[in-house]
Amino acid sequence: MRKPLSSLSFLVLAGPLLAFLTLVYLIPFLGVAQWSITLPEPGLTQYQRLAGDPLVLSVFLRTFRICAMVTVITVIAAYMIAYVWVRGTPLQQRLAELCILIPFWISVLTRAFGWLALLSNRGLVNSWLQSLGFISEPLTLVRNEFGVIIGMTHFLIPFAVFPLASAMRSLDERVFLAARGMGAGPQRIFWKVFVPMTFSGIIGATLIVFVFALGFFVTPAILGGGRSVMVAELIYLRMFQSPDWGLGAAISVTLVVIVAVLMGLLFRYARLGDTGVSK
After folding, report:
1. Of all helices (H) and strands (E), which one includes residue 104?
2. Which CATH code of 1.10.3720.10, 3.40.50.300, 3.40.30.10, 3.40.50.10800 fits the domain covering 23-110+141-278?
3. Are 160 and 209 spatial neighbours (Cβ–Cβ below 8 Å)?
């Protein structure tokens, strides 16, 4: 039986990492938080502006709407890929692994420009649809929310696959044998047994994808073309182009607080899930 680490051993092992995180993340965040209550003058003026500015509120609502749509599409697509990865034939599993791993080798900037080339008016998708006679005029697939959703979904699918695959691998095959023995068909077993038993993975993947999506900057900036501004892009505009550092800092702090709350829910759910498994 392994003995738990002593406090001194924990500090020795985790101290350098904690110091690095404090230096790189915590101190800069505290500086931004200070700007939000001191620029241009001390007080909560910037948070009052944030709450009363229709433009800022509309950007937050657009961000939540896009993130919600991206999360639903991503989790559904990732569930199918994870299912093939865990329960498919060896060839299907290898193909699923390629779908999961190859995106990690390509930078987010390259992927965004790749989608821009594919979905533009003269891109491959519009050219193919026109050559087949499905459309007479090019479809507007980029520089709008549709392009942003496509690019974000493509980037986030691998991150959703791992918690889903982990939940699927932890299932007891005897449960499915019992269901089959009681006369349940494949579809009924999938919807009534398999999916409910992987619900913890679905919740985990949903929270992970939504949290990641909230902070997207490059993909919405390129594929949205300035017409589908999200919170991260709004922060950049307020900080470096307006410039309105106080309001930009207040928006940054608000976004970090929202992400922290969602991460807290994720860790709490993961802890409850571990407790349930251990029982």
Report:
1. none
2. 1.10.3720.10
3. yes
CB contact at 8 A, 266 and 204: yes
**Backbone angle region of 192, left / alpha / beta, with phi > 0 → left and psi within -120 to 50 → alpha:** alpha
Longest Cα separation, the chain:
72
- The pTM score is 0.86
Count the alpha carbons within 13 Å of 188 in the hemisphere toward its beta carbon.
9
HSE, side-chain direction, 13 A CA sphere, residue 261: 6
Q: How far apart are the first and last CA of the chain?
A: 19
CA 50/CA 92 separation, integer angstroms: 50
Q: How many helices (H) and strands (E) does the chain have?
A: 15, 0
Q: How many residues does the chain have?
A: 279
pLDDT tens readout for residues 143-197: 999 999 999 999 999 999 999 999 999 998 888 889 888 888 889 999 999 999 9
- Find, among 190, 211, 171, the residue nearest to 74 by Cα: 211
Backbone phi and psi for residue 219, each to the nearest 5 degrees, phi listed first: -60, -50
Cβ pair 120, 144 in contact under 8 A: no
35-85 tens-digit pLDDT: 999 888 888 899 998 898 899 999 999 999 999 999 999 999 999 999 999
DSSP secondary structure string for all residues of 122-182: TSHHHHHHHHTTS-SS----SSSHHHHHHHHHHHHHHHHHHHHHHHHHTS-HHHHHHHHHT
